[in-house]
Amino acid sequence: MIQGGIENADGDIIKEQMREQAQIAIEIADVIIFLTDVKEGLTAIDEEIAVLLKKSKKPVLLVCNKVDSFEKFRNDIYEFYKLGFGEPIPISSSNAQGIGDLLDKVYEKLPEEIEDEEQERIKVAVIGKPNVGKSSLVNRILGENRNIVSNIAGTTRDSIDSEFENQYGKYVFIDTAGIRRKSKVKEKIEKYSVLRSSFAIERADVCLMLIEANEGVTEQDAKIAGEAVEAGKGIIIVVNKWDEYEKQTGTLEKYKQEVYNKLAYLSYAPIIFISAKTGQRVEKLFELINKVNENNSKRVTTSEVNQVINEAIAMVQPPSDKGKRLKIFYGTQAATKPPTFVIFVNQKDLFHFSYERYIVNQIRREFNLTGTPIRIIVREKMEKE
Ligand SMILES: Nc1nc2c(ncn2[C@@H]2O[C@H](COP(=O)(O)OP(=O)(O)OP(=O)(O)O)[C@@H](O)[C@H]2O)c(=O)[nH]1
Ligand SMILES: [Mg+2]
């Protein structure tokens, strides 16, 4: 779900940004809900938005909000016909009325085949700081110079999707804009690039986090990787330009250790050393992508989860505080992408971070969940329940 408010442009930077955000949201949406306010009536801004939406040629559902009483507002609704999107759909979000019907209509408008097709394709976002070789890697995979490559940082500004198939599967590779530190001069372009990158991460199943071999992990890399983790995406650390790196025996293992030291919260992500320039190990990426994607969408049964939890508890006793000990009643997987587990306990604040991390590690190890974040939701439950 993408939200973008649009206000008319009067030079105000925030409004300008909202407009840009809304524009991007329109570009990447499948269906657009055009929300108007029946109490305010049809406004000039509504008419401006209507022009913008018509240009987009996307399916639009015109919705009138705040219709608390259909009798009272019936005539006011008809005014919105003028916008040219057919019959306005009345809803009242505060009374939660009309929402079900609206969702049905959204569903009807969703592009079905594309949906199915897109679902079987693994979406892979190539992320990393400027100049690390993202476009070069995508070009190497595609076997063509689809994306512009140059040694000027910030060459790619818009995310570009490329479909690709081989014996390993079907993919969409998303070449993203390098996310870099803000510089005053280019701040504006910068913001949009960052925004587009964030959208690319949101859309992705798996992120290839590129690091430049000779530079090693930088603070900026850590920030970018953090975004993928927060979004719950599968993640693979890709050390690029390995052709340029001076090697001795044992270099690879040592390099790996350094990366994991600096990106401690990514100790579960696989690392691969490649050269987009020579093509070294690029083919090895596909099996990793498939595995990480599978793990990111993995589902395990409640009994399996509880077996792991019970074994974990038996091995390391849960912590106690002021004479009260943490009790874990049971756990269950609530969601995938990323695997999310709800764990029921007697008292939340006894479930210390370190013990939670221990449980997560056990779950990760038992179910082989490399390359994907795992989320834990802790719920309190009365003992007698
Ligand atoms: N030696 C070497 N150079 C590479 C490799 N991959 C990319 N390069 C070079 O690095 C520079 C930047 O490559 P790009 O692919 O444009 O980098 P990018 O990450 O897309 O950069 P932005 O779009 O600016 O964020 C170019 O000069 C490439 O030729 C590699 O594996 N080895
Ligand atoms: Mg690029």
Report what the structure shows.
By secondary structure, the chain is an alpha/beta fold. It folds into three domains: 13-110, 3-Layer(aba) Sandwich (Rossmann fold), CATH 3.40.50.300; 118-296, 3-Layer(aba) Sandwich (Rossmann fold); 302-380, K homology (KH) domain (GMP Synthetase, Chain A, domain 3), CATH 3.30.300.20. The protein is 38% helix and 19% strand. The relative contact order is 0.08. The model has no long low-confidence stretch (mean pLDDT 86). Residues 130-136, 149-151, 153-156, 178, 240-241, 243-244, 275-277 line the site of guanosine-5'-triphosphate (GTP).
Beta-strand content bin: 15-25%
Secondary structure tally, helices: 12
Provide the CATH topology of the largest domain. Rossmann fold
How are helices and strands ordered from N to C?
A: HEHEHEHHEHEEHEHEHEHHEEEEHE
Helix content, binned percent: 25-40%
Biggest sheet statistics: 6 strands, mixed
Strand order of the largest sheet: 5-6-4-7-8-9
Bound molecules: guanosine-5'-triphosphate, magnesium ion
Shape: flat
Q: What is the first-to-last residue Cα distance?
A: 36 Å
Uncertain stretches = none
Number of domains: 3
Gross CATH architecture of the largest domain: 3-Layer(aba) Sandwich
Mean pLDDT: 86
Q: Which CATH class of the largest domain applies here?
A: Alpha Beta
Work out the radius of gyration: 25 Å
Count of distinct strands: 14
Classification by helices and strands: alpha/beta
The CATH fourth-level homologous superfamily of the largest domain: P-loop containing nucleotide triphosphate hydrolases
